[in-house]
Write a structure and sequence with these properties.
This protein is of the alpha/beta class. The chain is built from 7 helices and 27 strands. Helix 1 runs parallel beside helix 6 (299-317), helix 3 runs parallel beside helix 6 and helix 4 packs across helix 5.
Length: 398
């Protein structure tokens, strides 16, 4: 496993291994945002449930091809939203408001601005065709039609759609539990004062935020020193408490990197060392039955490999039918040298111009965490591709 694995092979292998959790929870709509729907949902009703007015105006009962321009119609009713009104006779008009039910006998609505008031009714100033300005029953949704599929990530618009058909609850997959282990004897927790040789543990907070953003639950966040037995114990403990274990650090080839060896002792390793920059020393395997990702310790490498490698797998485990995030394209406003591996560089994309343009952060060191707060995207550069200003690049938004 010493040979660098191409990224496309990594994605194919992870897709084949990702298994959706099978535990579900029924939650109210107020708690369903960002959850993954665990059922196919069909509407029990038509939406709208009855014909209703699309405009403030006047309902009419017209015969086909009947002319209305410059005619006066007596007003026999007033219909507000939430009511239907009395049957409407030919030659009469009913004052009607947006959303109000079309009264029996009516077949069109003339807009208020196309009428004028007269002492004996309303004058219609235009010819109106039957069916105008009426939202027919079931125009939006037909009873029995599917409105949401299993695997859909529930967005605000889905909440509105579910409420519109009378749903107050939805069955969802329970949030994935992801354990976080940060390794390194040099790491301490903020705000303890640093001693010589120490650095603050930023990766645990970075990973917890990334996991929270996916609607998942970070659990059992552990910080361990460079010790073989402590590493093995932490991995076993985390695997028993979570659906997936994510570590940072300890998967390279240094004498004090114990995570890779520990995983091979308590589980097995399927992938190690991926052909990307930053983030080459990435590991994937399992501890017992629990999937495991070993990410690099440098914070930018940890961030990038989580987004590009771990995130699609975790989203698939969560049950989402679209685990890969959307990308777009932008023109490079810079030159950049080629590398023998696929590169993901930090850029800021300006979309205010006619065509999106990417500007590169000047220091692409994997230890410069501040670059990630400056950037709003990663630009993907193929292996052996030298970028020239004006080239079109694939963009992964942050």
């Amino acid at each position: 496993m010493s040979k660098l694995v191409p990224l496309e092979d990594v994605h194919a292998a992870l897709r084949a291994r990702a298994k959706c959790i099978d535990e579900t929870e029924t939650v109210s709509l107020t708690n369903a945002l960002n959850r993954i729907c665990a059922e196919d949902i069909a509407s029990r009703i038509d939406v709208p449930p009855d014909d209703n007015s699309a405009m403030d105006g006047y309902a009419l009962a017209l015969t086909p091809d009947e002319k209305t321009a410059d005619r006066v119609f007596p007003v026999s009713d007033r219909i507000v939203a939430g009511s239907v009104g009395s049957p409407l006779a030919a030659g009469k008009a009913a004052r009607i408001f947006t959303g109000a039910g079309i009264p029996p006998g009516a077949n069109t609505v003339v807009k208020q601005e196309d009428t004028s008031q007269e002492s004996d009714g309303i004058r219609i100033n235009v010819d109106v065709a039957t069916g105008e300005n009426i939202r027919p029953r079931g125009q939006d949704i037909k009873a029995g039609s599917r409105i949401m599929e299993c695997g859909t990530r529930i967005a605000p618009q889905h909440l509105g759609l579910l409420a519109s058909v009378g749903r107050a609850e939805v069955e969802t997959y329970r949030p994935l539990r992801v354990a976080i282990i940060a390794t390194g004897s040099e790491l301490i927790q903020p705000p303890t004062e640093l001693r010589p040789g120490q650095i603050y543990n930023s990766n645990s907070y970075l990973l917890a935020g990334l996991i929270h953003r996916l609607g998942m639950e970070p659990v059992q966040s552990i910080n361990i020193g460079d010790d073989p037995q402590a590493t093995r114990d932490a991995l076993v403990s985390a695997a028993g408490a979570a659906d997936c274990v994510v570590t940072s650090g300890g998967v390279s080839v240094g004498d004090e990197d114990y995570v890779k060896t520990a995983v091979e002792e308590v589980g097995h390793l399927d992938l190690w060392r991926i052909a990307i920059r930053p983030g080459k020393p990435v590991a994937f395997g399992s501890i017992g039955e629990t999937p495991f990702f070993g990410l690099p310790g440098n914070p930018v490498s940890c961030f990038v490999t989580f987004l590009i490698v771990a995130r699609p797998y975790l989203i698939a485990m969560q049950g989402c039918s679209e685990p890969v995030s959307a990308t777009y394209h932008a023109r490079a406003d810079f030159d950049y040298p080629s590398a023998s591996v696929c590169q993901f560089i930090r850029v800021r994309v300006d979309s205010s111009e006619t065509e999106p343009t990417a500007v590169v952060f000047p220091n692409q060191s994997s230890g410069v965490l501040s670059s990630l707060t400056w950037a709003n995207a990663l630009a993907e550069i193929d292996a052996d591709q030298a970028v020239r200003k004006g080239d079109v690049l694939k963009i992964h938004p942050l």
